[in-house]
């Protein structure tokens, strides 16, 4: 029983990370109307940048602040130098471009950090575990759960309660109208991409001490982010959280009893949900 | 005979003389896979990033039967076509109900589902090591173990596939698919069940992918895990786009360029995917429209000068 409860907690922690990935992807995909196949690679870059930042700067918290900013800057550059020219090009070329970028970033990671996986310890203060009564649980995972939850909440505050968030939501709904209202749509696109990249980067940075790092981590996460968006809906915050928690918890429970199936179950759950509800959890478009 | 047909037949004859027969075979096999994708991408306007699902599934199932039950070549081909079509029906059923970006993401996510099943089900697929030891059984006294004999077999099947695809895109079904590509809402309004026609395109495309999958398994004697991986799905999209998705011959030209390039460069450097990624980016930023369009633009400007 305590094994199951512990696994459910694990599932909630990873589920919140999945929700973060889905949210970032949803912002980019929704506002810019492009398929972002580089989203997983941005996640991986975030994780690797954290390790380097911690090694160089010697402080986890500074690293956690710096690494996602690096990813956001990368996103800014990608949007400005590449994607901006492709808005009229059709999804096929946009896909090829972002897919090409993801290959370049994944191979770049191998060139810079090597092909072998790296493990990374959480900061001193978050090592070890706490007794929750029913189970003994690692401190770092609790921290991730809270941090990811907080980030999701902050994103919600930004999107729902600020003027710029409102513009961004409007951009998802109707780009022409936003543009006609005199808002610089290109700036909006750049900001949305950078913000989505930042979310992917921080999800990667938070993941690094839990799962360790490997060059393939980006692609694995890309599929999961797609699942979150397909189930939760573009621009749907509640949907992203629900979908992230659903697959996170399902994965963790299955992992306890049938480890080999723990990745397959993510996609199987998606297929199962779509079989019953083709329109996704909350049914939009 | 038309100019394209002559060129194609000439290519079929010349290719094994200038390239190793295995690579020449791979070009036509990849072209069959491209034909299947192009029915979706070029003719129906559906961007599938999951063609490796059908290609790989067919390769594994037919490869398994060839290896353990010693089925003959034509039964293997039939199995591949069936598995390709059936897996495409299952995937397509879930995907065609959503459109646009959702559709693309779903084809990729379901590709990942099949990939991870193959990755983990090591007792059957061999996981990361692949499924080796797939025979190329002789048929009616023809020894397909001979690379050239197998090349002839593959190229005949390719020509038949191309002919069938030509008939499909010129048929009423093909015209309806093109109508869906041009204007989905109008096609629906005229009375066509758009979702059902999209599914039909998916199943046909899957059958072509399945055929390519079996031929690939028999060509190399192994089904590597990459056969069902997303990179294969991406490569077909790339090859079809550089060839030009607007025409029947686009994927054929694209396959030729892609296989020839990858076979000559991938042996030189282990970080070949990096170059591939760079190639994707360059093509997208500077060479949109593909080889066929660049060619026809060149052709037209030369005619205007005359």
Provide a descriptive summary of the structure in words.
- The complex is a heterodimer of chains A (285) and B (306).
- Chain A has helices at 2-32, 39-57, 60-81, 91-113, 139-161, 163-173, 175-180, 185-211, 217-232, 237-257, 264-276, and strands at residues 129-131, 136-138.
- With 285 residues, chain A is mainly α.
- Chain A has one domain (15-216).
- A two-stranded antiparallel ribbon of chain A has the order 1-2.
- Chain A is globular.
- Chain B is mostly helical and 306 residues long.
- Chain B has a domain at 15-228.
- In chain B, 77% of the residues lie in helices and 0% in strands.
- In chain B, α2 (21-44) runs antiparallel to α10 (194-220).
- Chain B is globular.
- The two termini of chain B are 26 Å apart.
- The mean pLDDT of chain B is 88.
- The chains are: A mainly alpha (285), B mainly alpha (306).
- The interface between A and B is large, with 48 and 42 residues.
Arithmetic mean pLDDT of chain B: 88
Beta-strand percentage range of chain B: under 5%
Rg for CA atoms of chain A: 18 Å
Whole-number count of domains of chain A: 1
- Taking all Cα atoms into account, the compactness measure Rg of chain B is 19 Å
Most extensive protein-chain contact, per-chain counts: A-B, 48 and 42 residues
N- to C-terminal distance of chain A: 40 Å
Instruction: Name the helicity range of chain B.
Output: over 70%
Give the SSE layout:
The complex is a heterodimer of chains A (285) and B (306).
Chain A: H1 2-32, H2 39-57, H3 60-81, H4 91-113, E1 129-131, E2 136-138, H5 139-161, H6 163-173, H7 175-180, H8 185-211, H9 217-232, H10 237-257, H11 264-276
Chain B: H1 3-18, H2 21-44, H3 51-69, H4 73-95, H5 100-120, H6 122-125, H7 147-170, H8 172-182, H9 184-190, H10 194-220, H11 230-243, H12 250-265, H13 272-286, H14 290-305
Helix pairs in contact in B: 2-7, 2-10, 2-11, 2-12, 3-4, 3-5, 3-10, 4-5, 4-10, 7-8, 8-9, 8-10, 11-12, 11-14
Q: Summed up, what is this model?
A:
Chain A is an all-alpha fold and 285 residues long.
